[in-house]
Amino acid sequence: MILCPNPHPDYPDNWIVVKQSDHDDQCGYILSHFNFEDYWRPTDPVMLAVALGVHDTGSAYWEDHPILDADGKPWVYWNIPPDEHVKQHYGGVSLGCEVDPYVGLLVSMHVVGIHRDRLGIDSGLSATHLPINHTPVVDAFVEEQAALQVKLRAEVEHRRGAAFPPEHLMNDFKLFELIDSLSIRFTGLGMQDRDFTYAPDRAGNPMTVSIRRAGTWEFRITPFPFAGDRFECPVIGRAVRRQTYLSDNAFRAEWVNSPQVLLPYALVR
After folding, report:
1. DSSP sequence for 48-79
2. Backbone angles phi, psi at 264, to 5 degrees
3. How far apart are CA 42 and CA 199, in angstroms?
């Protein structure tokens, strides 16, 4: 669950809350429209879009039964205790593996990266989302996922009938993380500007991708990876009354009856 920092002009007194599953949809949609002229072309563009589209599916059950923090506010994704995160991660990885080993591999890398600076490529994650966590539960999960990733990569190679070099996998992962980070900057970080220095270029070398706010709902992204000069990538939010809720059930009742709101995000040249 994501609590948007920016107020909505039609709902100034409400929280605008976005489900992780709607953030997923936006991520998959964005990647599915990339032209890769300047960017790394992933090993399997279709399955990478699918992986982005399901990567936070482990949050779905919790989001349908949302709970409050100690202040009576919705408990957003990056404020959940790390051991609770792990419970959600298992569901997401399991689903990804059922879809395809490549999808499961990328989802596993992503959820481990949530607790490890996106696998060391983005220290900005700790500053804006989650600190690196070393609890017994998290550390055991990370170790377990490392073993699973070895098996999944071998299965990907078997299905492809070709080697899957580690550097190619890491470039696919970097592109995955770029899209996830971009989506979160729309919904969760108040449309903040940023330069991403780890994005892989067409040859797989690091390049800088800059995003700059260009309007109420728009980012200018350079290099621009879409056809035309404007790419619409909206997200559904929910306008929940801004107040202190006295119980989880009180918030749940409000949550399910809250109006859905289209957040008309876009990327422009």
Report:
1. HHHHHHHTTGGGHHHHHS--B-TTSSB--GGG
2. -85, 60
3. 12
* Distance separating alpha carbons of residues 122 and 159, to the nearest angstrom: 31
Q: pTM of the full predicted structure?
A: 0.94
Residue from 163, 20, 168, 186 nearest 95 by CA: 20
List C-alpha distances in Å: 148 to 50, 109, 226, 236. Answer: 20, 10, 34, 34
pLDDT in tens, the chain (269 residues): 899 988 899 999 999 999 998 999 999 999 999 999 999 999 999 999 999 999 988 887 778 777 788 888 888 877 788 888 888 899 999 999 999 999 999 999 999 998 888 888 887 665 556 667 889 999 999 999 999 999 999 999 999 999 999 999 999 999 999 999 999 999 998 899 999 999 999 999 999 999 999 999 999 999 999 999 999 999 999 999 999 999 989 998 998 899 999 999 999 99
Q: Could you identify the residue written with the tokens 């070393």?
A: 134
Q: What is the distance, to the nearest Å, from the Cα of residue 31 to the centroid of all Cα atoms in its chain?
A: 12
